[in-house]
């Protein structure tokens, strides 16, 4: 009998429900606030931009929320995703640790993002919405929503941060292949965009500006809604299909993780793998949960836990989260998906409750880990996912140093096929690491809204 | 019970042997000839460039050849690959046909090529070879050999046609990520390269020149061999793992293909899916087998069945095959993997025996089919594979017009993540189709070697 490499679930074991961690939290999540009244947000506050079903999920305390059959039908194009034991990497590291990874790069857009873009497109279509507007930075989310829109007959308009729009033409090509339109932001199509362009016609854009443009389009048109790819509760909820599958697959493998690892930007791929394991931890299972972020954008490791805006333009509700300050501008890096000043409120809350730990790495050590991974396991990780790879390798080396067995499970949230420029730069020795400048943080945090 | 979308084999059903069609051919394959003596090639003729095990397979008449366990271990990183029923595409086409595709894009390099790069690297390593030299056009093969080399500790040197080297920097980045070196060809590293550069310092290179450079490197160094990614018998052999899996998976689906479709360049992905089905056809099963090629390089549909050289520089043995003439220069297209003047001798022989049919398409109609596929099934096909997609859609529409059920199986040999420029050009309306100029063919064919 040969050793297994992959643990595949048959389609009939695809989870039938998403898991809502809110139901099991020992302390309830602090509510989002209306920035005008500073009162807890009500459903009507969100009605102009999200469909009813999504707002319900955002506010739900139900433990299990059924995955609609049309969503499961689309999930089956790539789900259940494989759980893979990295046996070659284990041998290369000469470690007694077992290393498993859940591979979300098998999705059509190459990352975990379609786990939420598909249900979001479905609920919008069910409620008669004709068009979705969204923003995208590096392009992963824009591609995922473009894919989902194509399946449910929704028009999709993506405002892509102009600097990325110019740097990553193939992301735009993928969105257009799925039938979406992709517009460099700031654009002349919105008031928000025109205002920026009037001040600075050469503006490179930012995620904050792109969000403002997309939200403006959604508010201005009755048949148009907005969609967000991370941070919010309903997004974390949809991603839990990852962890629910992993629980079944680890059982197939006859192994149990001692440590569960994922990278954190807005927090959704972390939540997806980790929340089901945090449920087990709350129930009493002994397990460590680790979030990994870039040293250049250290939200969980250096941010303040406070109410803050979700966007730079300060248009969103106030959320209690780990934040570097809404005006904080993270230095450029190749992990565009991790360059966010805030953190999912649910993930932040979990951190405050001591249910997870967080650590940060420089990008070059993550690329070195990604290369070692690619040369043993064949898969080239997305730069974001390489943070989880680095942490998994460090845990495996620690196990070796301690001479202890250890079972490690991490989320390989996406592949790097659209990020090869980052690898080119790394291989050419062009990537620089910078020590994080705490004084920048002091400045941005001084600007936090004052909430009693 | 919901309808199945994917048919996954467990790892223990990964085939234990490759299938050699030579054992079942009703008429033996015409042998390759030594171009000097015009006598059938002997093993020693190939010894300077291939390891013994590969030469044996090239000349074998054994029906089944065991897949070594270390190769199966690597295969398990992505194999068995999924068989997917394209239910959403069926509904979009409103066809009574069932459409299945075998998806080879799940491999680390994104195509079927690692099915042969892995055993080739293994056999070379077993025989003490330290380095492999190869050529690559669009880059699929170079990436696949780079991946395989990284796993078996072999140095890999890839001569990449200069025009592609400059156009596709991310293919080079992928090779380097796997630890290979990638050199634009013609290069100053070889006599062949220097000769070309002396005549034309600005030469864009060609596959023929790149082959000459790689072969020269292999011959010049005792510890270095050459590796080829298509055309030859041992390559077709290694690819049959695709069709053997598909036979098991179609059984799981409770369906039997009426028609099996794959695109043809050098013939290896076609052979991989089709040869096991041709065995069944020879045994009496009623089934159509269709090879699909670009109208701009119509080897099977317009070429002559004759002895010809495998490379432009006329250094290789003579092979009996469908050929457009070794000096034929196919016009540029985005399906670089299909731009080859010849065809696998085994595939050519199968065509002559009437065991398969061939058809050709223009590239724009293939991209239109690829878009329809991507918007329904989520996967963006490689431009090469889009030829098979187009043929499958045409078969499904024919079934609809005839009001008949029909089961279609095609090989989706790779994804298009590294070919998004092609999609950009298509979407911008920049791709042109040209009617094939038969007079070019007359000229190239007049140049065929004269063999009695």
How would you describe what is shown here?
The structure is a homodimer of 452-residue chains. Chain A is of the alpha/beta class and 452 residues long. Chain A has two domains: 6-14 and 66-110 and 234-446, Rossmann fold; 114-228, Rossmann fold (3-Layer(aba) Sandwich), CATH 3.40.50. Helices cover 41% and strands 16% of the residues of chain A. Chain A contains 19 helices and 15 strands. Chain A has a seven-stranded mixed beta sheet with strand order 1-4-5-15-10-11-14, sandwiched between helices. A four-stranded parallel beta sheet of chain A has the order 8-7-6-9, with helices on both faces. In chain A, α5 (114-126) packs parallel to α6, α9 packs antiparallel against α10 (207-220) and α16 (363-377) packs across α17. Chain A is globular, with a radius of gyration of 21 Å. The termini of chain A are far apart. The mean pLDDT of chain A is 94. The interface between A and B is large, with 49 and 49 residues.
Concise overview:
Chain A has 452 residues and is an alpha/beta fold. Helix content of chain A is 41%, strand content 16%. Chain A has helices at 43-46, 52-59, 69-75, 87-93, 114-126, 140-152, 162-167, 169-177, 191-199, 207-220, 233-239, 241-253, 268-283, 299-302, 345-352, 363-377, 386-402, 420-427, 438-446; strands at 6-7, 17-19, 64-66, 83-85, 98-103, 131-136, 155-161, 181-185, 224-226, 259-263, 288-294, 304-309, 318-323, 357-361, 407-412.
